[in-house]
From TrEMBL:
Xref: PANTHER family: MARR FAMILY REGULATORY PROTEIN, TRANSCRIPTIONAL REGULATOR, MARR FAMILY
Domain HTH marR-type: 20-156
Highest rank taxon of the organism: Bacteria
Residues annotated as signal peptide: none
Identification of the protein by name: MarR family winged helix-turn-helix transcriptional regulator
GO-annotated molecular function: DNA-binding transcription factor activity
InterPro entries, per database record: HTH_MarR-typ, MarR/SlyA-like, WH-like_DNA-bd_sf, WH_DNA-bd_sf
Pfam families on file: MarR_2
Species this chain originates from: Streptomyces sp. R21
Species classification: Bacteria, Bacillati, Actinomycetota, Actinomycetes, Kitasatosporales
GO BP term (any one): response to stress
């Protein structure tokens, strides 16, 4: 008989079942290997990590190839500090430049340069091929659809809209 107070029993962790543990570990294993695979491909082909490639893509897709730094951090799902470091490295390569925001003295824009756009254009085909080979060619159309739906549900649950949410781009 459990003699612990009811409040102590209520706080005991709800451990993962064996099947949940198997799924969780498979997910962690696959995402770690996928990120490593994509990082190695991009380092080999363009001398940049995957996160930098994502920043270049976000800027290329933005109107005028420019985004406020805060918006870019939100799109990349990274902290402002990590973004600032990444943009500094991309600036050194000549792929991005910063511009002050005329309407906000503290705000800045990240702007994709013509050179950065060219690098992205040369790098994209190999990256798309790596993504396709590592993920989409391994899944049926039904599995692809299910994976997309699952990841949207997980992301929505981790990205609350209420004020004070603890999200990377707000730190």
């Amino acid at each position: 008989m459990n003699t612990a107070p009811a409040s102590a029993r209520a706080e005991e962790p709800r451990w993962l079942t064996d099947e949940e543990q198997r799924i969780w570990r498979s997910y962690m294993h696959a995402t770690t290997l996928l990120e490593d695979h994509l990082d190695r491909q991009l380092q080999r082909d363009a001398g940049m990590p995957h996160i930098y490639y994502g920043l270049l893509v976000a800027l290329a897709e933005a109107p005028g190839r420019r985004l406020r730094m805060t918006e870019l951090a939100m799109k990349a799902k990274i902290t402002r500090s990590r973004l600032s470091h990444a943009i500094a490295r991309l600036e050194k390569n000549g792929w991005v430049r910063r511009e002050d925001c005329p309407s906000d003295k503290r705000g800045q824009f990240a702007v994709l340069t013509d050179e950065g756009f060219e690098v992205l254009g040369r790098t994209a085909p190999g990256h798309v091929s790596a993504v396709r080979q590592a993920m989409f060619e391994r899944l049926s159309p039904e599995q692809q659809k299910a994976l997309g739906e699952i990841m949207e549900i997980v992301a929505e649950g981790l990205q609350p809209n209420e004020a004070g949410a603890d999200l990377p781009w707000l730190r």
